[in-house]
Amino acid sequence: MWSSSRAGSGSSRAGRPRSRSRSRLPALVILLLLVLPMAVGCVRVRTSLTVSPDDRVSGQIIAAAKPRDAGDKGPQLLNNLPFATKVAVSPYSRDDYVGSQAVFSDLSFSEVPQLAGMNRDSAGVDISLRRAGELVILEGRVDLTTLNDPQADVLLTVSFPGEVTSTNGSRVSSSIVEWKLRPGVVSTMNAQARYTDPSARSFTTAAIWLAVGAFVVAGVIGGLAWHSRDRTPKPGEPVTTRD
């Protein structure tokens, strides 16, 4: 009896691990389903900036991810900016990625850093543009330490209207620079481009037109003076008569 009881007891215990194994299987499946989206290339963040010769900025921001389910719309950009009329936000869906994109135009240098406020998860993003004489300087910092997707597609592209004189990014051309930002680290960006200060250009143009205007006015005054001159013959001068 004792031996059969032990045998039965052993048989019962032998069955328990199989029961636990079965009960843990759904949990492992759920865990894998949760981890899988983060283990593949599921994040796409692309920002492009184009600086015009008059120091205005246009471009677009794409924030997207591979959806976890049919109802997942991906990351959303919110147009709660003080210059909302310069920004248009629309849904984004391409290459199995969903999310949103923002297209903006005619931004001043001081308005560019405020674009980071379009998403609550972009607190670690800081990009600024400023002018120093004939140079326009871009400086930026992006904190991706919370992004653990090694295949994340995070790209910043900046196009200047003049030659890029120095940068820590990759030169696409003499005036275009891009940065492929690595997940899990803090990245810094810097670039300098040389082109004429629009205020100086405006001053030069105004000076040219002022000079042209001065010559025109001088010519008009000279012409009027010539036609209105005193034509009375001076003593000793012959008197001319018309036939």
TrEMBL record:
Keywords from the named record: Membrane, Transmembrane, Transmembrane helix
Superkingdom is Bacteria
Q: Where are the transmembrane segments?
A: 206-226
All copies of domain LppM, residue ranges:
44-195
InterPro entries, per this entry? Answer: LppM (IPR053807)
Pfam families in UniProt: LppM
* The protein, known as: DUF3153 domain-containing protein
